[in-house]
Fold these 2 entries.
Entry 1:
Amino acid sequence: MKFSQYNSLLYVSDEKSLLYNAMTDKFLALTGNNNSLFKTAAISPATIKDVNPELFGQLCENGFMVEDSTDETALVENLIETIDNSDDFFQLHINPTLDCTCRCWYCYETHLKGSRMGPTTIEAAKRFIENTMSGNPDLKSFDLSFFGGEPLMYFNSVARPIISSAIALSGKYGIGLHIHFTTNGYLLNDEILEFLSQTDVSYQITLDGNREQHNRTRFLPNGKGTFDRITSNITKALARGHRIVLRINYTASIVDSLKDIMRLVECIGSESRKYLRIDFQRVWQDPKGSDEEEETLREKISAYASEAKRLGIGASTRACMDAVRSSCYGNRRNYALINYNGDVFSCTARDFSEANRAGTLSEDGNIEWTGNSIENRMKARFRNSACRKCRIAPLCGGACRQRCIEEPDNLTECYHRYSDKDIDNIIYDRFDYMFMNT
């Protein structure tokens, strides 16, 4: 037997340590003699077996030790490929428009005023959904997600007919259907909520701090704030049993304002809260502070997540990494994004320009991929030597396929520039997510 290359030993105190294995996602608390044993310089599987056979059995059972012949890197590679090439699920994103009701300073999209999916592309999108459902015998579920721009703009003329067609097709072919909107929530009125109540629907809706901070960031072109209307629409949707991921964007400068959002959440009835999950996400443009400042920020976000869970609401942070088993849709073979004009992309985190497109949607509902864009994409992930040696490779998977394509020559350095301390913090946060806030 040998120690797994995906073990991490984290020292909690002189008396306690945490052993973590990223492949099995298992933790083992070490105290007393067991803790002392792992601090021994000559520690080896044979030593542990001789000194403490019971501990040795636990280590083997939970993947902290593996057979000498085990190629763990190959196991991770196979896991990534199995999940990302699964045929039982398809996710389709549709951009009804690249226009938006708001103008947020951090948004990476280039808004295109007046852009709108036309009848020809709408019909082609319907045909694509039918072609996908009828042509994939292993398909069990189809996720139809609307993005943009603000996807609730032009709802009745674009999203509604596509959803109606998808509902009929899912019944015809016996395939599960889920509808999702990544929306600012401003246009989520009673008519839309009533229509969407006929199917399985969810939303990601964003708040940018409390009322004051949010209205400084997320406002209409005329300068009017959106906080009150968005929070009212969230309450109405939850009351109908619609699931919402409330994404709370924060920076170090506004993190203290989030306490007002937690007070607002506490006022939501307990029956509605079970449909709500909070996702705390740091705005990526926010510059990092000193180590001490970053640690304080992490503690504050962790405290908010704990408060949410106390209220019966699921909560997560970006640090709760699981990017292999819960692989991003953009990593998967069975994924596409159809833009309002029929251009096709392989990722939502793009400038939806012609230069970045991966293909086009034909009128008969087929995607004409550019060159070998799909195969090149599927080969791009987990090639980096640093990734293949990393102790959290089964959590991270290296980087998303899009980033691997954009950095083709980066074959030796961590894409994320993680230090050992960064990796330890990721593991601490995973422990906190799995055990401390339940």
Note: The chain is about 40% helix and 20% strand.
Entry 2:
Amino acid sequence: MGKNCLNCSNIRKVTIIGCGFVGAACAFSIMQSGLFSEMVLIDSDRNKAEGEALDISHGVPFSKPIKIYAGDYADIKGSSVVIVTAGASQKPNETRLDLVKKNISIFKKIIPEIRANGFNGVLLIVANPVDILTTVSIKLSGLPENKVLGSGTVLDTARLKYELSEHLNVDSRSIHAFIIGEHGDSEIAAWSSANVSGIPLHNFCEMRGHFDHDEAMQRIAEDVKNSAYTIIEKKKSTYYGIAMSVKRICEAIVRDEKSILPVSSMMHGEYGISEVALSMPAIVGKDGIEKHVPIQLNEDEISKLKQSAETLKNVLSQNEI
């Protein structure tokens, strides 16, 4: 589908803003998925966007037909999903929240451009700190809140499932567990609702010969929380895991799957939290967030979730939007 159709509504058109490691990996993952027939890549360095588009396009003969090209903000028109990965990247010894000022400044330029070009699809925020930038994007975009979501703890949750699958020697797809709250240092492993194919996690652990639950849960939660730091220390950046997470969220949107994913979205009184976006399980479909899904949490988990929200609110209060 060529540029002469850009004013049409097209569920199979996606735009990615930012062609760094994360943006390029997202583009590659999405190209292989067959979800879209048209992909626009936008970057402040036009040559970078053109190079990535050309490189990824050369793999199309091994995948499904898709037109991939570098564009500008006017080319957003007609996209069903706009994915924003643009922003400063996380450096060694730097937390996601350390990126706030730099990336809010970048988003103050990007989001109004998206709005000015008539976009009315689903806006998916991936850049960090993702919860802060999702909140900022809701305020700057003018889109309905349900249509603005962040990749949130979808990747953290995948990391949790992977670690549990290694611990239990069981297929990670049979594990049902969530990381909630901030995508960052205050994230919470929601152990109260974790299960393996409906069997409570502690029971399943004992079936597999593991009995020191507290030690194992603490170790696994810490490993998940520190995954990004470990990867950044070893290879300077992370991008494959988040690219697969973004592809998964796009699947839920394009196919209107009504999938339950822990994406970042605005809270309105759930668990006593409001006026900030953070990650809780939500039903995701063609219009973005349909509804938050309440999960079983104990008092300690709820308390930590509120603390996570306060951490994010404090950061927001120190930065003008």
Note: The chain has ten helices and 16 strands.
